[in-house]
Amino acid sequence: MERIPARAASDGLAVEAVQGSRFTVIPRSTLPEEVANRLLTLIKEQELRPGAKLPAERNLARMMEVGRPAVREALRALALMRVVDIRQGDGTYITSLEPSQLIAHLDFVFPKDRVALVQLLEARRVVEAGNARLAASRVTESQIAALGDLVVSLADSIDDLDRFSELDIALHEAICAAANNFLLSQFMNIVSALGKVSRERTGGLREVREAALRDHRRIVDALRAHDPDAAQRAMLDHLDHVERGLKPATDPVGEPEAGVDAAPEATSAVRGATLAPAGSEAAPAGGWAR
User: Fold this and answer.
1) What is the CATH architecture assignment of 104-272?
2) What is the mean pLDDT of residues 215-236?
């Protein structure tokens, strides 16, 4: 392995990012993938930090003993992943590496990947049930008023799918804000971005939006009462309905869909770690939203 000399900083990479970095020689069989993987490793090991400028393309190619086309292809792939920002006439920079930015390109995966959808639902249960519970104890009067306004706006937008979806996301994010936990808010950024997939799948029917509206009213009522148990239970009931609406998408291919009255296995597993199942309204035909 070859350590990059400090003079490489003259190519635009900050001295502190250069020192200790290793751009190893790459086998020629999988050049672009290996170049990209090596750069990702340097980022993971914090030898390349957010905002750092990479050496010029020709210098990266020389350091790794590969052709410039391989480096160019690797950088384009990393740009699609939002890991680097290629600025014409300036150079290539490591992005801010914010989670919401890094997962922005994954929205096409979730509609096609059953396992990814199941894991998204599991993540929503952990994060959003926790948000609701904390928010019940911490929500302020002004936040309660804002949540109430959002519910009213949801009702007014019941026939406007796009507007209803925007307000739905805003309400869930407002609950997270009321929980007042920085780490949970970061997790919620990811969940919200990917959760748009489930909304697109289940929100097309008016009765689905009406059911979601009823769920949201129950959640906000529990927050207004400052009842952590009721808030968590209402959120979990809501996510039960979301999962039922997504059941055809999350069932394995060739496996018959479970009846509406059957509790989904993933739901039971996660609920068992938090609350005893609470009674909820039967899901209407077409599933539930949000």
Assistant:
1) Up-down Bundle (1.20)
2) 98
